[in-house]
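TODO from last week: model Universal stress protein.
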Amino acid sequence: MSIYAIDTSPESGTAQRAVPFRRILLPIDGSQLSRNAFGVGLELAKTFGAIAVVMHVVPPYNTMAYVSEFLAAAELGYSQHAVESASRYLSEAKSKAKEAGVACECHYMFGEHPHEAILNAVTEHHCDLVVMATHGWHGVNRLLLGSETQKVLAGCPVPVLVCR
C-alpha cells in the first residue's frame, strides 16, 4: 500500500516532483453517495492536475426467453431511459469538472456487473486511482446484493479511495 503526503507550499517544490495520480477514475451511479465521492475525486484531480475519467455503468434489461417478444418494447424503453439518465449524470459531472478547471472524460457502458466494468475501465483508460462510494450495506442486504466496492477493492491493480 502506498501513502502519499503532498506538501503544496511554495517552498516544497511540489511542481518538480512526480505526480502520483494522472488519471483518476470516478464511477458514478446517480446516488448522493456517488456524488459526494465524485466531489472528493474532483478535488484530488484538481490538486494533482490529473484527468477525471468519469463513468456510469448501465445495468442491462434482463428478460426471460419465453416472454421476450412481450418485453422487447419495454427493453427498448428501458434502454432509452437508462442512456438518458447516464447522459444526464455525465453531463452534470462534466459541468462540475469544467467549473473546477479539471480535464474530464465521460463514458457510459452497459454491464451486468458494475465492478467488472470499473476494473476494465481502469485498464482501458490507464487510470492510476479509483475514487468511489460505498453504500455501506450490512447483514442480509450485503449478502443478497453484494458489494461492488468490495469487489473492486479485491481486484483492482491501482489504489482505491472509498468514500461514504
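Done. The domain at 20-163 is CATH 3.40.50.620 (Rossmann fold).
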